[in-house]
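Q: Given only this backbone (215 positions), what sequence would you predict?
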């Protein structure tokens, strides 16, 4: 959906790449915790724009709101919001330019999370409720990122990404699973997220090729 190019003139290229890797790792780990399939993480140089394009694509329930449960909508909102949240795990202290960049990313992703609620919530979510839903999803993400095991796995995946241009979903999932045990994932779901509903439905089978990119 998004082209994926982003840059901030006040952030050095090396630090930008570190933030990008943390950001995409945040999306990916949040997806994995919730049982959402990761398709691919990409950190490829965009030669035309002279910038880095970074995306994490995950499997979506379907193309229209009828395919989505309310839990699906909230799960995607959390995945979106986990990107900018993960940037806060960068080496401190951040420069003023970096702080500004992280703030802008957070605002952009908050808007995107709210667009998800509007687009895929259908008539189930009234417009007036959307900001509250986003705030609640952001609190869930904070709760998840307060756990040491999550912080460690996001940082480890970001380091892994640093030396690569892309990592396929199954490899990313295996990597995260080597850092967070099944028991820890269950505990994270209990405490911080709605348990993902069983996905063995015809709707999800029909959406094999549907994916979205988290910039
Ligand atoms: Zn993002």
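A: Predicted residues:
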């Amino acid at each position: 959906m998004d082209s994926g190019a982003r840059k901030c003139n006040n952030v050095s290229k090396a630090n930008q790449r570190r933030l990008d890797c943390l950001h995409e790792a945040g999306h990916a780990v949040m997806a994995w915790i919730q049982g959402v399939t990761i398709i691919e993480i990409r950190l490829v140089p965009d030669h035309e724009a002279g910038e880095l394009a970074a995306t994490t694509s995950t499997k979506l329930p379907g193309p229209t709101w009828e395919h989505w449960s309310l839990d699906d909508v909230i799960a995607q909102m959390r995945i979106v919001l986990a990107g900018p949240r993960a940037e806060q795990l960068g080496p401190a202290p951040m420069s003023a330019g970096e702080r500004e960049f992280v703030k802008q990313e957070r605002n952009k992703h908050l808007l995107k999370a709210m667009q998800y609620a509007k687009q895929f919530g259908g008539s189930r979510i009234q417009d007036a409720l959307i900001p509250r839903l986003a705030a609640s999803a952001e609190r869930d993400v904070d709760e998840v990122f307060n756990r040491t095991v999550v912080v460690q796995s996001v940082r480890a995946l970001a380091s892994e990404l640093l030396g690569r241009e892309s990592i396929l979903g199954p490899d990313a999932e295996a990597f995260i699973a080597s850092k967070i045990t099944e028991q820890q994932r269950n505990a994270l779901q209990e405490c911080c997220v709605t348990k993902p509903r069983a996905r063995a439905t015809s709707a999800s089978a029909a959406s094999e090729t549907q994916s979205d990119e988290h910039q």
